[in-house]
Design a protein that fits this description.
The chain is an alpha+beta fold and 405 residues long. Helices cover 37% and strands 27% of the residues.
Amino acid sequence: MADIERIIIAGAGPVGSITALALARQGIPVLQFDAEKTTPTAHRAATTHSSTLDLLDGIGMSQTVIEQGLKARYFQYRYRETNEVFAEFDFARLAGETNHPYAVQLEQHKTVAIAQDMLRAHPHFALHREHRVVEITQAADHVRVVTQTPDSAKQDWTARYVVGCDGGRSFARKSQGIDFPGFTWEERFIIVATLFDFEQADNYRYRNYIADPEQWCSVFKIPGPDGQGMWRNLFPVSDDSPEDVVTSDEWIRARYDYCFPYARNTPIVHRNLYTVHQRVAASFRKGRVMLAGDAAHINNPLGGMGMNSGIADGLNLAEKLGKVWRGEADDNIFDLYDRQRRPLAQKYVQAQSIQNKETLQAKDPAAANARFEELRRTSDDPVRHKAFLMNSALITMAREAEAIA
């Protein structure tokens, strides 16, 4: 039989790469596959929360993320019509609860690059790109994986365990017959990148949410390709117009005219249209195959919950894989992984991201005003302000997970 003394990771995004790094640092051989030739640079996740930075401390990665990113101490909620700030939250109130009382804005492909750069120092790690996983079968003491390259050539591999970090359409999850219940939002989302400086234009923070019953949106700053700064705007697409219409300059500029009239002539640097889901896998583990990140749970991007909770999945699982590898625990510990991560993905990640979206788009004036007033009271009250941040930064979720036996 071929070598099984290793762990295979399907997917080389942020969750897969950070999980691989956590395993490699424990001296565990890791084989990683990804279908893409290079790491995609499309605009997706960009917020790294306090709880995640604390976890990245443990694998020596947080400082580089902080150095390459933008520290975001505040985030705001504004009315679209008047641009008035009706609630602002200050991560500095988390001092004493975290090593990092702020969020960091850094594009996910740069987070992947940091992890992969660190992985090169580990001789027992290998990444195979343009290797699509097309078969996963389990045996009593190992897992067999088949990959296929662009020339249709197939290759067999074996490992003691497989970790599926291969996204919302995860083959790893589907191969094990694990259900993925939930729903798909009627709206699609489009991310537009621009060099317009919202901070200089109207004192925007690095993270901002704009509430409006007809056309809510958000504004975020990221380092951009040259590190000098770029701004992202997120808009919902509430009709079924074809992609070429929604991604056209005309459609996008109409959104700017409505939401940011002072930025209507800004150059559009990038646009990315995608469908949004809210789903959690029925199990995060089946035998020797485990799931983490989007393969296990997906949600709308409001609040930056997806990548952060996925990284927490991967690091939780890497710790348990290490214990099994060293003979300190048996395979039952993977059931604990499922108990610690899956229910809390429902309780915190799904609930918070859905609430964030419903707050911004509330159409009934009375309901909208009630939600906005509740946010205003929360930001004005020190105790509630901190509790809100503890949830937003996933610190409460992390502590609750640790308490589950």
